Amino acid sequence: MPKKSPPSPQQLDLLNENPPKRPAAPKKKPSSNGHAHANGSNGAASMNGASHAHEETVVSAPPARRATAETMGSKQRDISVSEFFSKNRHLLGFDNPQKALLTTVKEAVDNSLDACEEAGILPSLSVEIKEMSEGRFRVIIEDNGPGIVKPQIPKIFAKLLYGSKFHRLKQSRGQQGIGISAAGLYGQQTTGKPVVITSKTGKGRPAFRIELRIDTKRNQPDVVKDETVEWDKEHGTRVEINLVAAYRGGRTSVDAYLEQTVVANPHLELSYLGPKMEVPIHYPRVANELPREAQEIKPHPHGVELGMLMSMLSDSGKSTVKQVLMGDFSRVTNGIAEQICKLAGVKPTARAEDLHGEVLDRLHKALGEVKVHAPPSSCIVPIGEALLIEGLKRRFKAEYYVSTTRPPSVYRGNPFAVEVGLAYGGDLPNDEPADVMRFANRVPLQYQPKACAISEAVYDTNWKSYELSQPKGSLPVGPLAIVVHLASVWVPFTSEAKEAVAHYDDLMKELKLAVQECGRKLAAHIRARARAEGEQRRMSLFQRYIPEVAGAIASILGRDKDKVEGSFYKALPNFVNVVAESKAEEEAKAGAPSMPPPPPAEGAPSPSQAPPPAGGAKGKAKVEAKVEAKGKAKAKVEAKGKAKVEAKAVKKVALPVPEKKKAAPVAKAVTPAKKPAAPVKKPTPKKKA
Amino acid sequence: MAAKKKSAGSAPNGATERDRKTLRKIEELASATLRTVEKADNPAVALRVRALSNVTFNEKKRIIELGDRVQSREFFNTNMARKFMQTFLVANGCRELIQQNKTVTIRQMYYILKHTLKGSSENTFEEQNESDPIIEDVEVAVDALREELHLFANKKGLAAGELVVNDAGDEIDLSRMGRGGWGIPSICEPEVLQFVRSKAKFIMLVEKAAVWSRLNEDGFWKKNECILLTSEGQAARGIRRLLQRLATELKIPVYVLVDNDPWGLYIYSVLKQGSINLAYESMRLAVPGVRFIGMSSFDYKKFKLPDSVVIKLNKEDLARADQMRNYPWFADKKWQNEIKELQKNGFKMEVDSILSKGISFIAEEYIPKKLKDRDYLT
Question: B7 and chain A: CB distance < 8 Å anywhere?
Fold first, then answer.
């Protein structure tokens, strides 16, 4: 876990340990390459009681002076990280014991995943939560990541505001809280126990086990114990944190977090041993390829904020304005740079760091107005339609899965992409509101669903037109799970707690379009299923009456009853669209209950691990083909009951329905959405006979 | 019905020509269906639509007639399959009755044909009201009358008076039927029922058995030399057929006494020109010359009936009255006046209410006065 999650700018400022006396620079964002703690902070100043006093000194009113600048100055001092942390736990995700547990696990898991992906390693994680005593837990997270070089270990885990991800514009998970060190600090404050890190960077290299404390006065790591240990892992990192916490179930639980993480990260292999479990839950990997590495991009002219612009200019050394524009922004060509300068009334050759005041405002305005291409979408890494479905399959035993990945779009100069996955039917509860899972850059959002743009997109969609019931202003009711993933270099959250996505118009539009597009695919399936069921009912109706009619006709005419009946059965296929499938259906039904629930409770290796789809995901067609191949291979390996079901399902798709006029609707019914999801969907194995 | 029975066109020895014809028609229905199925097509039974939309009032004959609109009852159609099946069950049931030369009631037929379908909880017929209309369908489909299908309904209606009949070989004097009267059988065809002799001058048909008993006890038919009938509510086919034959064969007038309400008028209307449901039988059942003697809405004033005996018309009555006024056979001004008066009165009256004027007022005052005054409608 070499990386630390970046803190938000505000948190950064607030946490700054530098004396607040420094001139408060009006910088909202840190410089792109500067050190976080090098920046002054008006946030801290306003936090500080002393600055308040300052204002009073300015007031030249008659009331008697209460203090002098000197006496006040003597009170002005550093705020310790520890003190700040105690007062602002809620900002960092440690509001209460339950959330503290979640945040700790989340920071560690997100860091591990980011590290593995950056290093190009397929992540295998294990998470263990032990209840040591009443209200005291130990969280152990172990990954197979690249490991951390020894000198960095203390800084990463025991120094707040240390990391690599904050300073760049690149899609990554680490946006929650201020990282693993905050979790370590929380643990230290509540239990007094140090954080224990074990890490190994490669085969043949030593594994280090280091116990760390945070010196809260100086915000420096304090190595308590340092030893070399034996570790059979080739490489990886193991973090142990003791903390006061509470373990509960529900939407905001650790369990929910992990279940959802597994959905959004099909390439993740995870085993989880919760406090009340005897055997770990094992989620095998279902995608043997890493997500494409996200490209780091330069800021886009439309998305840059004034503070950001100022620091970009002031850090530019001797460059001209034009050079900065062309060099540090994406999509700014020579011509566009000149256009911007003209709009702003700035000489292109002016020294960038000399710009200030009104000129700066004009330049900022010009940047927002100039016509320029959208930023490259290479910086966006969606999960992908096929893999999203694989992810959903890990969590839900549904009858039908479908997904939609929208093409990348832009809000305020920030590229983003929305994708939606749906699981329908099967074991999902029939009469409960849909299960909605929100993700930002593959990280589950578990809090504040009501305030989130993603939820709003789901609520605002008219699910009734997709064959689902939906009480007014509520979620659709039915056997449905909805996954919405927002991938972006900069996810706009409503607050520093990063729990809900903000309502930007461009974003809302894409979210809704994605939900609707996926909803339509689902509706096509539901309708097809209803049609198929209708046909089934029709057929059994005729089958019920044929013996009676044939019997009567045979005895009126003195013919052989079986022969007359045979004539009727021969004519039957011309009038119904399902043929002789009732048997297959029954078998499928009999086979279904023997299937294991989605997360196999035992750590047994799952059959779905078997055939890795080789090669990178280049074209959609390729992915599809793979998934299909995989699906079939799977069917072979898996438990008999299931194999039977799938085989039947496949057979059903391929079943040539009698050539007559009424055959057409059936073909349509079985493959409603020809698009990417088609190969992986399984036509309803469960049906009432 | 046992399917094993040897069948195929062979009517039993001694079967009438009529039976042979019916059997042939049933067989034709079945073989047409089989031929269609063997071509893998959808078999269908053509049925003339028995609904208001497909009946017309023949002004000349003064009867309701069934139109030509045909409904095709298909087997491979989820909405019709069940009825299609039932149609053939009934057809086959009747085939067996004819071959065995036996007759059953429509209720017995319902029980004979009712069984549970294999592999389900569904019955061939759930209620008798499901099989009765199917029987009518078969009558239409094979163009046979109910009695030709060897089916009949329960006796309904009573008769007494100056008439001697021969019913299936037994001679019955309707002037010697005591208090109970003669139960009118469901089938009153000339083959089984003949009129031996009669000195009746007219026929009096009353809606209610209670009124019939009252008149019978008062010796109304003896004093007036008539035949006294009751339909016991809406007239069944048996009594309608009997009435038609009496009217035509004895050539005497028929008077009808019903309650003063829309339903009474409808009973009269059915006797007179037939019903929508049995429009295909109007020719045999309707008696266009039948005379409506009462009770009329005008009788309230005419006979100075007390206020206390009237019953307020309800919503349903008023709507029904509106409907009646629109029937072409009530288009005549005198009928319009009659119905308007009913609506104007805002109340209805039962025949029994006339008893408020005296126990024998109907037999001794009301009817004789009306007959004398020729105070009736046609």
Answer: yes
SS3 sequence of A139-160: EEEEECCCCCCCCHHHHHHHCC
Task: Tell me the three state secondary structure of residue A13.
Answer: helix
Burial of A227 (0-12, 13-18, 19+ CB in 10 A): exposed
Residue A421 main-chain phi, psi, to 5 deg: -125, 145
Q: What is the pLDDT along chain B (378 residues), one digit of tens a residue?
A: 444 444 444 555 556 788 899 999 999 999 999 999 999 999 999 998 888 888 888 888 889 998 889 999 999 999 999 999 999 999 999 999 999 999 999 999 999 999 999 888 999 999 999 999 999 999 989 988 888 899 988 889 999 999 999 998 999 999 999 999 999 998 898 988 999 999 999 999 999 999 999 999 999 999 999 999 999 999 999 999 999 999 999 999 999 999 999 999 999 999 999 988 888 888 889 999 999 998 999 999 999 999 999 999 999 999 999 988 988 888 889 999 999 999 999 999 999 999 999 999 999 999 999 999 999 998
User: Which of B37, B42, B120 is nearest residue A567 as measured by Cβ atoms?
Assistant: B37
Q: Does B94 touch chain A (CB under 8 A)?
A: no
Gyration radius from chain B CA atoms? 23
Measure in Å the smallest separation between the Cα of B139 and chain A Cα atoms: 16
Interhelix angle A505-557/A561-571, rounded to 10 degrees, is: 160
Alpha-carbon A260 to chain mean position:
8
Using the Cβ of A551 and the Cβ atoms of chain B, whether some distance falls under 8 Å is answered with: yes
List the one residue out of A309, A316, A405, A317 whose CA is nearest residue A359: A309
Contact by Cβ (8 Å): A36, A161:
yes
Task: Name every chain B residue with its beta carbon within 8 A of the beta carbon of A570.
Answer: 40
Nearest Cα neighbor of A40 from A306, A351, A307, A316 is A307
Phi-psi region of A62 (alpha: psi -120 to 50; beta: other; left: phi over 0): alpha
Task: State the pLDDT at residue A297.
Answer: 82
Query: Could you tell me the sign of the dihedral formed by the alpha carbons of A555, A557, A563, A564, in that order?
Result: negative
The residues of B annotated with a catalytic role in the active site are 111
Q: Give the span between the Cα atoms of A303 and A490, in whole angstroms.
A: 10
Is residue B201 within 8 angstroms of chain A, CB to CB? no
Gap between the Cα atoms of A285 and A287, Å rounded = 6
d(CA A177, CA A169) in angstroms, rounded, equals 18
Q: Measured between alpha carbons, how far is B313 from B321 in angstroms, rounded to an integer?
A: 10
Q: Tokens 């509520």 label which residue? A: A474
B131 at interface of A, judged by CB pairs closer than 8 A: no
Nearest to B117 among A544, A571, A574 (CB): A544
Higher-pLDDT residue of B65, A677: B65
Torsion-angle region of B17 (φ positive above 0: left; ψ -120 to 50: alpha; else: beta): alpha
Compute φ and ψ for A138, nearest 5 degrees: -120, 125
Q: How far apart are the first and last CA of chain A?
A: 53
Element (H, E) at A42: helix A42-47
| Minimal CA separation from B44 to chain A, in Å | 12
Q: Which chain A residue's Cα is nearest to B96?
A: A556
The structure tokens 């042979």 sit at: B20
Cβ-based burial of A656 (10 A; exposed 0-12, middle 13-18, buried ≥19): exposed
Nearest to A549 among B1, B5, B88 (CB): B88
Look up the ipTM and state it: 0.79
Q: Which residues of chain B have a CB within 8 Å of the CB of A566?
A: none
Strand partners, A520: none
Quote the pTM value.
Answer: 0.60
Q: Could you tell me which chain B residue has the CA closest to the CA of A555?
A: B3
CB burial string B295-306: b at 16+ within 10 A, e below: bbbbbbebbebe
